[in-house]
Amino acid sequence: MTKTGGTDPKKTDVKVSLIGGHRLGGATLHERTLTASLIGGANIDLTDVEIPDGAELRITKLSLIGGVSLKVRGDVVVDVRGIRLGGVRDEGPTKAGGPTVRIDAWGLLGGVSVTRD
Questions:
Q1: Vertex 108 angle, CA 73 and 31, to 5°
Q2: Predicted confidence (pLDDT) at residue 4 exceeds the cutoff of 80
Q3: Element at 70 (helix H, strand E)
């Protein structure tokens, strides 16, 4: 996770498309990411991203149709918020204190699926 230092505002990555999803991953992501599409999901792999304990990586997904497929390390807490038709599938830890990934998923159709490495 690329950190911004001092009093500078946090950087936000923005990915936009009309049709088609986004594939995100790698250590180049910043603290906040916005991915928006009319039709298309987001495939996010954060297994190689070092998120410090107590830090939060925030991803916002906006779409009419399309869900989120998220892959994280086993110790990462995933907090899912937003409104969408579709469920949340996550068997991971729910105790706060470790690294956290917050998913704000807003859309009509599409759920959030979390897998752990």
A1: 35
A2: no
A3: strand 68-72
pTM (2 d.p.):
0.81
Cβ distance 39 to 65 under 8 Å? yes
* Per-residue buried b or exposed e for 54-64, using 16+ beta carbons within 10 Å of the residue's own CB: eeebbbbbbbe
Residue 79 confidence (pLDDT) above 50: yes
Residue 33: both structure tokens together: 């990411």
What residue type is 21 in one-letter code?
G
Q: HSE (CB half, 13 Å, CA atoms) of 95?
A: 4
Gap between the Cα atoms of 80 and 83, Å rounded: 10
Statement: residue 7 has pLDDT above 80: no
